[in-house]
Amino acid sequence: MTQPLSVGLQLYTLREQLARDFDGTLDAVAASGITEVELAGEYGGLDGAGLRAALSERGLRATAAHIGGAAWEDDTEGQVAFLHGVGVTRAVYPWFKGEGAQWTALAEQLEALAQQLAAEGISLSYHNHDHELSGTVEGQPILDMLLTRAPAWAWNWTPPGSTPPGKTR
Question: In which order are the strands placed within the sheet that holds 154-155?
Fold first, then answer.
């Protein structure tokens, strides 16, 4: 028996609409047939459990949450509580732009965070962009360096037709 196709949406794409009309935007998402959302941004002032309820009453389910570095640094325990409350077991580190030693420091931070989250039943991914593929640190592509120095987390995006570092087709 074939399972029905599940269609998802990253809420970052609707950040402006959500800021203007949170409930109405979620209603429109659900009405479009989308059933899964990837969290990114603000959530109408709701905590994790409140957001989970708001999604559930519309037939939506959160599959992952993009949470930036400052949020992790400021309140790791609060972010973990939010993820547990909303029912998400995959956190995504969405963005970083730096130079040289800043990247190696990030690798150390990601590795420590990934291990801490794993103890909570949460996996950590890194949403890379073009600069992690085109830039280098100590002669090594940034994404290669991150994967080598922070093996506890997973890559989250590579361009169509490309192979993530360390992977084979």
Answer: 8-10, 36-40, 61-66, 90-93, 123-126, 154-155
The Cα 60–Cα 58 span in angstroms is 5
Residues 122/92, Cβ–Cβ less than 8 Å: no
Judging by DSSP bridges, how do beta strands 140-141 and 136-137 pair with one another? antiparallel
Contacts of 65 (CB under 8 A, 6+ apart): 38, 39, 40, 82, 83, 86, 88, 90, 91, 92
Q: pLDDT, tens digit, for every residue of 62-72?
A: 999 999 999 99
Mean pLDDT of 2-11: 84
Query: Token pair for residue 12?
Result: 């970052």
Distance CA 8, CA 61 (A): 9
101-118 helix and 69-86 helix, angle to the nearest 10 degrees: 20
The per-residue pLDDT for range 59-99, each reduced to its tens digit, is: 999 999 999 999 999 999 999 999 999 999 999 999 999 99
Condensed to tens digits (0 to 9), the pLDDT of residues 148-158 reads 888 776 554 44
